[in-house]
Amino acid sequence: GLVATADVPVGGGVVLGRQGLVVTQPRAGTFTCVSAVCTHSGCLVDTVSNGQISCPCHGSRFDLTGAVVRGPATQALPAKAVQVTGGVVRLA
Ligand code: FES
Question: How much distance in Å is there from the Cα of 84 to the middle of ligand 1?
Fold first, then answer.
């Protein structure tokens, strides 16, 4: 599995740097996983705060579903299908 559901804040998320993924929980009980590779120039996004995923390189921001909130990135972070079993978020 990727991460325990209890470790993913509602309205936030966690960056899994080793896997290059971000797991978020936009609403209670709804889990989303997106690539952590910024679509601008390939840096790894590194923080999730205030409901946004941020890239440290040039300041792009994405919402919890990976959609662009602020450039320079113009394309969403690609989503990965996940499922939740036994309190753990896993790639589907
Ligand atoms: Fe992420 Fe440029 S690589 S903003």
Answer: 30
